[in-house]
Amino acid sequence: QVDAVRVYVNSSSENLQYPVLFVVRQQKGVLSWQVPLIFRGLYQRTYNYQEVSRTLCPSEPTPEAGPSDQIIFVDVASMAPFNIAYELLVTRLENFQLETNKAFNFTASPSQPQYFLYKFPQDVDSVIIKVASDVVYPCSVVSVQDIVCPVYDLDHNVEFNGVYQSMTKQAAITVQRKDFPGEQFFVVFVIKPEDYACGGSVPSSIHGNVNRTWNLQRTKNLQVMIVPSIKKSVYVQAMFFSFLSFLSFYLGSVVVAFVHYIRVRRKALAGRLSPEDGSGIMTSSHPITASTPEGSSYGAIDESSSSGGRQLSSPERGLPAGSDTDSSVEEESDFDTMPEIESDKNVIRTKVFLYLSDLSRKDRRIVSKKYKIYFWNIITIAVFYALPVIQLVITYQTVVNVTGNQDICYYNFLCAHPLGVLSAFNNILSNVGHMLLGFLFLLIVLRRDILHRRAMEMKDVYTLDYGIPKHFGLFYAMGIALMMEGVLSACYHVCPNYSNFQFDTSFMYMIAGLCMLKLYQTRHPDINASAYSAYASFAVVICLAVLGVVFGKNDVWFWVIFSMIHVLASLALSTQIYYMGRFKIGKCYLGIFRRAAMVLYTDCIQQCSRPMYMDRMVLLIVGNLVNWSFAIFGLVYRPRDFASYILGIFICNLLLYLAFYIIMKLRSSEKLLPIPLFCIVATAVVWAAALYFFFQTLSSWEETPAESREKNRPCILLGFFDDHDVWHFLSAAALFFSFLVLLTLDDDLDAVRRDKIPVF
């Protein structure tokens, strides 16, 4: 048992010109202070305390010398020309050493700090120091310091040594035995003279640089309890759980692929034995040469002449094997490789009733190569974006470890398990799902790509004239984006704070954008955005996100400009979508808005005529209302979390477009096969569960670190993962199922001619 001595002094004098000086001399140190004790706050405000109580640095007797009496000298002096009364009291602390799993209550104030000793038990390698208080203020600081004298236990020096964090109602610090060679440490509690650091305001009774005595107004009752942290075996169990949970998706994918292979083999065998056709192709179920039904011609051009399936099948059928990947294929250009008689895109794409054959007329090799640029570009973007991010968060973590300032990073300190130099390994490990499932999605897309190439090599006519055109470049880009979201989310959680939150959301923007592009590309393969323009748009969004982080807190001018950009971009994009990219904007880009206003006036106000493309008009009206609502909300409330605000815009637009697509698909008498139907249900269920855990706020960098710690909660899964880790697991699975929905949604159209597949 270590003995400690506490010295209490009090002086009735408030004369700052002649303070009473106290010097305590011990065997291995000197401690001094004055009464009145002066603390300085914001704007050089001063706070004077006439009562001071300090714990002297304890000296543990050595085994060689044995127990002995300790001699302490207390010197009292003052330069005052008159007598000053003071009170001096020296007491022995009975409960100086804290015990494991035993709560201890005490009181502290700015002039009467407290610290206690803790020794690691033999079988404990890591402990969590939990501190709680019933009141928010006064603001306090909890520090863990090595057994070194003097102990830094005042507001102006508590940050000089050890690990520390500010607190209002609760705090938690994880301490490992390996960090303290003596296997013991001090737990220091300091009450700050002001609450500004914890989110409070300066006391209203203080005006300017006015001196005032504060003796009893800023006391705080605290409770400290030290509990053992998890053992190494829990780390191993958590790693196995994380990897095995997502490797089960690999097993499920293998089972589905095997079942699909068996079914294909059975159909092939049945085709060989079919009496109608000995060639193995069941032409009776897919009538290729059937004439176009009466009434299928719409618009200015007859369907038989505008059908891309019959007009363009001959050059594609004559392609050599593997020609779709030939690097010498001509790049996408401004002209189309279509017959001259069908070269008027204004006539074709502005027909009232469009079919997929109208928008899949370009050379498949060129279009496929165009979409593969998405894949290669996103790899380049990922490398150049991730490397500086990794370097920055490593610097953040190094600063935290060197300075001991745990207010830099906003962890859930009640469930932050360190490993090596990382302070919260569990938040990083939980992102492994994004990387594993992203890679699995790439394998699934690769399998489909290989099967499609084999069908092309076999000159399977169904791959040329039937179903949705198979372009996999965007799917590959989505898989890479999912993997990079895991990498960057892990980087953000190395040291989560306000400055680097954009790392966690940048690839979320890209995932949402790529999903919308893929959904649009499905039935608009010839007019979808190029990779260069798409990624340039994403770059503009990320730039706006950075500007929002810097200026979006209180600057009204930024929100006015952003809302105008948002509304104008929505109108411009809506016009281009409504007219299938054939809307002429004239010599000036502002012409598009002038033309839109003219069309709105003539069609909706002057004549009140029915829109030419009713379905598209309904979608765009609803979409614009949603986007304008976001713009108004941002302008009025100015949310501080600007990155999440932009992400919400992307997600709402994606969900709106996906719902419209599925509704129009069912309205067109198309079917949902079992696999996409299962994926849709799984996506909805997993997203609902994931969002539940997402909204269980465990920390918030929108507040001060001390206020954020009030939201901290213990682990809920395996004693290792918290609610946000479960969000990581479930959101990875939800994104994976969402990607599968887009991949399999139109599998029912593989046996349908493209001139019978409507465009919407």
Automatic annotation (TrEMBL):
- Asked whether the keyword Signal is assigned, the reply is yes
Report biased composition (Acidic residues) as residue ranges.
Answer: 327-336
Q: Which UniProt keywords apply?
A: Glycoprotein, Membrane, Signal, Transmembrane, Transmembrane helix
| GO terms for MF | double-stranded RNA binding; RNA transmembrane transporter activity
Q: Residues annotated as region Disordered?
A: 273-336
Q: How is it placed in the membrane, per its record? A: Multi-pass membrane protein
Q: Which organism is it from?
A: Grus americana (Whooping crane)
Recorded family membership: Belongs to the SID1 family.
* GO cellular-component term (any): lysosome
Task: Give the chief site where it resides.
Answer: membrane
Ranges of compositional bias, category Polar residues: 281-295
The protein's location, in the record's own words, is: Membrane
Q: Mark out the compositionally biased spans (Low complexity).
A: 304-314
**Where, by residue number, does the polypeptide cross the bilayer?**
238-262, 374-394, 428-446, 474-495, 501-520, 532-551, 557-579, 617-636, 642-663, 675-695, 726-745
In terms of InterPro entries, this protein maps to: SID1_TM_fam
Protein name listed in UniProt = SIDT1 protein
